[in-house]
Amino acid sequence: MECKIFINCGKRGFVKSVALSMPVYSMSCCKLPIGIVSEIESLLMRFWWEKGNQNRGIPWIAWKRLKYSKNEGGLGFKDLAKFNDALLAKQACRLIKHPTSLFARIMKSRYYNYCQLLNAKKKKR
Question: What's the pLDDT score for residue 91?
Fold first, then answer.
């Protein structure tokens, strides 16, 4: 029993520190499509519930429930779609706070040259 608890703690640490942090750079640059987000979460679920090399485990609790914080009874895994939105909001906040930075000037000239960031419309390309 103690061995199983240790393995699950190791899996939890791996999922939180490695697997959930791998797509962070791409999520901070662009909005990932829902299909890609669900595929990443599907891979994480499969890894979390597998018992061995080819033994598929039984999902005793819903993956959505595992995303809850520890205080709410979950394991604190991130909701990747919400995390993606948060990272993009952080970039937008940087653009608004530091409009004279090189990054802000490049983004303004490329995407919203004739208006403010919050009033920009989606372009055709």
Answer: 92
The domain segmentation of the chain, as residue ranges, is 2-119
47, 49, 1, 50: which is closest to 22 by C-alpha?
47
Q: With CA atoms as reference, report the closest residue to 94 among 108, 110, 79, 114.
A: 108
Instruction: Give residue 94's pLDDT.
Output: 92
Lowest mean pLDDT among 71-75, 82-86, 93-97, 99-103: 71-75
Tokens for 107, please give them: 């983004």
CA distance 118 to 98: 14
For residue 77, give both structure tokens: 């895994």
Contact 95, 110 (CB under 8 A): no
Helices 80-97 and 34-49 cross at an angle (nearest 10°) of 130
CA atoms within 13 A on the CB side of 65: 5
Which pTM was predicted? 0.70
